Recover the amino acids of this structure.
């Protein structure tokens, strides 16, 4: 989605110290924000894909991820939906962002389930929402950096503070989400003991790194981006603990590259996308 400046005029109250002077026409962030810089990068959809790979390792969060999918093993439909949601939340005006946030909250409120130990969960539980958020912001910073977008440490922390606004619109309190790189690392580590690879998560991943369909058929698949044949490059950018949970990818696939080799390839991909 491209930046939009539609909607009624008016002021949006900024978070303390963040984005002072942002108007309703600018939405949650505004053109001077780090968020606009990160989310308008041509490689940002790859970051969303990485976030999905991480999110589905958390069973309750996986239920939220799949809540709007017709096929549970179709990452491209989920990617398309997520990019649309994040595009509206980023570049839409204040009213558009609020409506999208309300829709997302409505979907999550309807998600319920049980874990193997008998515990029940809801899609709008704080720990579920926090995991979804942490995976998204971590992936945005990690993937765009590996692709060549240069951000200082201060800009990375500013991005996380800005994203507390998006978290508030989708059901979290700003103080419940990480607002610095150090807090983000702690948030991801806190939930690590709950992560596991389910059959659904593995099938989801296989569609990215080792699709069963011939390339010609995959190219015609609905919502499949043009760079999908090399989307496996995202796998080496996952944290070591996530790669370990999934296990080794197919030998010879882009997913089997080392993290450093994948970074070089991602740089090349970004250059190509920027040219296009």
């Amino acid at each position: 989605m491209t930046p939009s400046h539609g909607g009624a005029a008016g002021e949006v109250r900024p978070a303390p110290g963040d984005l002072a002077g942002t108007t309703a026409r600018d939405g949650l962030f505004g053109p001077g924000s780090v968020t606009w810089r990160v989310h308008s990068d041509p490689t940002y959809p790859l970051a969303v894909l990485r976030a999905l790979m991480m999110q589905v390792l958390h069973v309750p969060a996986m239920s939220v991820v799949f809540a709007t999918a017709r096929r549970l093993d179709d990452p491209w439909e989920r990617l398309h939906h997520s990019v649309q949601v994040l595009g509206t939340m980023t570049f839409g005006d204040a009213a558009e962002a609020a409506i999208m946030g309300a829709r997302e909250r409505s979907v999550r409120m309807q998600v319920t389930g049980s874990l193997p130990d008998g515990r029940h969960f809801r899609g709008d539980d704080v720990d579920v929402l926090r995991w979804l958020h942490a995976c998204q912001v971590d992936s945005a910073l990690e993937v765009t950096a590996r692709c060549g977008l240069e951000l200082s440490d201060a800009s990375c922390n500013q991005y996380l503070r800005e994203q507390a606004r998006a978290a508030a619109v989708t059901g979290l309190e700003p103080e419940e989400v990480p607002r610095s790189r150090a807090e983000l690392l702690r948030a991801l580590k806190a939930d690590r003991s709950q992560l596991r690879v389910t059959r659904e998560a593995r099938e989801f991943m296989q569609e990215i790194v080792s699709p069963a369909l011939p390339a010609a058929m995959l190219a015609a698949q609905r919502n499949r981006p043009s760079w999908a044949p090399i989307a496996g490059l995202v796998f080496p950018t996952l944290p070591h603990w996530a790669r370990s949970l999934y296990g080794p990818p197919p030998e010879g696939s882009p997913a089997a590259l080392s993290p450093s080799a994948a970074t070089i390839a991602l740089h090349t991909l970004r250059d190509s996308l920027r040219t296009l």
User: Anything to note?
Assistant: The mean pLDDT is 86. The first strand starts at residue 112 and ends at 114. Residues 24-214 form one domain. Residues 180 and 265 are 28 Å apart (CA to CA).
